Amino acid sequence: MLEIDGSYGEGGGQLLRLAVALAAITGTRVCITNIRARRDKPGLAPQHLTGVQAVGQLCGAKIEGLTPRSQQITFEPARLRGGDYRFDVGTAGSITLVLQALLPVMLAAQMPCKVHITGGTDIRQAPAADYLREVLIRLIERLGARVTIRVLRRGYYPRGGGEIELAVEPATLVPAVFDATGHIKAIYGITHVANLPEHIALRMKQAVLDQLGAYATQASFETQILGHEAAFGPGGAIVCWIKREHTVLGAARVAKRDVRAEALGEAVGKELAADLAAGAALDVHAADQILVYLALAGGGSFSTRSASLHARTAMWLIEQFLPVTFGVSESAELAHVTVTPRGK
User: Fold this and answer.
1) What is the separation, in whole angstroms, between the first and last Cα of the chain?
2) Looking at the annotation, which residues are catalytic?
3) Where are the alpha helices (DSSP H) in 137-238?
4) Got the DSSP string for 106-144?
5) For residue 217, what are the contacts with CB-CB under 8 A and spacing of at least 6?
6) Under a CB-based contact definition with an 8 Å cutoff, are residues 86 and 42 in contact?
7) pLDDT tens per residue, range 204-229
8) Whether 63 contacts 56, CB under 8 Å
9) Is the dihedral of CA 119, 122, 126, 131 positive or negative?
10) Distance (Å, rounded) from C-alpha 208 to C-alpha 144?
């Protein structure tokens, strides 16, 4: 049984989610200890429980230690399988973080698979739903994946109640090089608020445009003002993405009660402007999430403004399950990441 120290590197929920996903994909029995040990509230929170349970259902796993705040689990997978599944986080726990664990497994199963998950769609410290749909999934599609996603209802902290449906068709992933060469094809954005005044969405959007400078003339924004039927509770988010010939750059922020709308939009605009100025192929958030898909594809490369601790932790973990090697070379403004088959 492979033992994984859950406190290694970034030591958070992403390590846990990725570990059980890789265990399911490779059929590896794994024991994960010290789960989220350095967090203020260590151990398993509801969204972590749901993520592990969901992966377990997709591979018929035997799981021990799966209780709230547990800091150790064993995960013994059987065979991957497709089908239709429904999962409920039970709180405002992030749906997109649960999908972070499920999507690699669904793609590796090589069978049609669909999941319907209830929880939070746009939650702080997690990918916003529109970022997942318009940035990460678009990048994965460049590897050959066939994924469809629908946001059926928005849900926010603290009540959740949102719903997302994601489906995968069998496809073979192939290596890809993400680079920032070529012209900008389009700049898009979605700003939305639910059960809140419209001016909040408009102020977020304008703040992004102010930061993009000359690029703002190329931007096309959709503003969504949602009511009770489309969203459960008050909330909002802003997501902006830039389509280039060989990649997609994105940035997002989720509305927060004590943060001004302008500050949220400004943060999104500054991130995108910095990525463009540096010549980055991927934003720092996509960079750590794309690694497992490149590894499953057997190779690829990209540049990003920095190889984060999240990314370096994921590299360490992936190399324990899959026959690939990661390389990172850093210059003044960029980190260049390569994924190669081990031994080559």
Assistant:
1) 27
2) 310
3) 137-141, 198-212
4) HHHTTS-EEEEEEEBSS-TTS--HHHIIIIIHHHHHTTT
5) none
6) no
7) 999 999 999 999 999 999 999 999 99
8) yes
9) positive
10) 31
